[in-house]
Specification:
401 residues, alpha/beta, FAD/NAD(P)-binding domain, seven-stranded mixed sheet, six-stranded mixed sheet, 18 strands, globular
Length: 401
């Protein structure tokens, strides 16, 4: 049986491992973090990613871990509602097949699906890839030399596999002019269950969402034209303090919570654009290949779609990887390009840079309450205009795979 090393145990990696296992491959996951990542932000999960999760038998667990949001509410500095929309809009856009959940919870559920049957190496990473005629020699930072038939990079926006094989990140990254940060706290004294709150001032947004177990998530999106991107928590907190200096609404209380936090997610809002997603025995999936950015709202679903299609094309090609990689890219290239274009249009809606832009964004959001308006305005950008092929997986019970 063919062996495949997958770099990254987030969303794309475990999904690929699951479907490769169904197709008769032997996958191995390597993850640079010492444990599964926690924290981060919540995602809105729908469309083909939702369908793939259903095929994997994950929907009941996702439903238990997730949230059924009733309202997105934009508030002013006094917490008064100025715009928003409710459940009907979510149902209209997704046919009722929609859930909000922490990205880390989706990652955990995917990992639990494959952990008993797949070798997973934590706290390690690929440092050398050596292509040979019939295999790839891999050197791991801590795990020494290994050999595999294929290597797949599922290691996100800052992909190590992409850097080793295709070149440095700046050659492929397109920064959209925004940054993002997020952290969780326990016991915050203001909660609005199943409601996503946003307070926006020109060039900066603060979001608040009530999580299970008396936890609260704070999300920040802010305008930043490729400035200094700090790497330590202390410098990241300092940058947030500087960006949000003088901000209103609940910012003073949130700042107190930020200072006590030890787990801060902080990154650029960027896209990855590449002419090709594979080279010889190595391929990329998910954000490593085509990050659409946080603004698209479908990064996790697209990661699962690309994993499903790549595994399916390898199964269909009976292991002929060049043929499979070519078919994988041909099937997804125009679909992903459309998602990236939609994300570029959405990006400025999170944190409009001017007062007039902020006013216009709120007017647009208000119209979403009109029947059919949301589908007319954003339906083309979030619709999944792709049919998932009916690949010939083996017939084992998916629950035991």
């Amino acid at each position: 049986m063919k062996t495949v090393l997958i770099s990254g145990a987030g969303i794309a990696g475990p999904t690929l491992a699951y479907w490769l296992k169904r197709a008769g491959y032997v996958p191995t996951l390597v993850e640079r973090a010492p444990v599964l990542r926690r924290g981060g932000y919540v995602i809105d999960f729908w469309g083909l990613g939702y369908d793939i999760a259903e095929r994997m038998g994950l929907l009941p667990a996702i439903d238990r871990a997730g949230y059924h949001v009733r309202e997105l509410r934009i508030v002013d500095e006094g917490g008064r509602r100025v715009a928003g929309f409710g459940t009907r809009v979510f149902d209209e856009l997704t046919g009722g097949r929609f859930v909000t959940l922490a990205r880390s919870d989706l990652s955990r559920l995917l990992y639990e699906k494959i952990s008993a049957s797949t070798e997973v190496i934590f706290d390690d990473e690929i440092v050398v890839l050596e292509e040979r005629d019939d295999e790839i020699g891999v050197r791991l930072l801590r795990g020494g030399e290994r050999r595999f038939d294929l290597v797949i990079g599922a290691d996100g926006l800052h992909s190590q596999v992409r850097r080793l094989v295709f070149g440095p990140q700046p050659a492929f990254e397109r920064h959209l002019g925004y940054g993002v940060a997020a952290f969780e706290v326990h016991g915050y004294d203001r909660r609005d269950e199943n409601t996503y709150l946003m307070h926006t001032e020109p060039g900066r947004m603060i979001g608040r969402f009530a999580l299970h177990d008396n936890r609260t998530l704070f999300l920040f999106i802010f305008a930043d034209e490729a400035g200094r991107w700090p790497t330590t928590h202390a410098d990241q907190k300092a940058k947030l303090r500087d960006i949000y200096r003088g901000a209103r609404w609940e910012w003073p209380k949130i700042l107190d919570e930020l200072e006590r936090s030890n787990d801060l997610y902080f990154d650029r809002v960027s896209q990855i654009k590449m002419d090709g997603w594979s080279k010889n025995r190595i391929a990329l999936i998910g954000d490593a290949a085509f990050c659409v950015s946080l603004a698209a709202g479908q990064g996790s679903a697209l990661a699962m779609i690309s994993a499903f299609v790549l595994a399916g094309e390898l199964a269909r090609a009976d292991g002929h990887h060049r043929e499979a990689f070519k078919a994988y890219e041909a099937r997804l290239r125009s679909y992903i390009a459309a998602k990236q274009r939609g994300a570029e249009r959405f990006a400025a809606a999170f944190a409009p840079r001017t007062s007039s832009g902020l006013w216009f964004r709120n007017q647009v959001v208000r119209t979403f309450s009109w029947p059919g308006a949301a589908r007319l305005m954003v339906g083309r950008d979030i619709a999944d205009r792709l049919d998932l092929p009916d690949y010939r997986w083996d017939r084992r019970d998916t629950a035991s795979a």
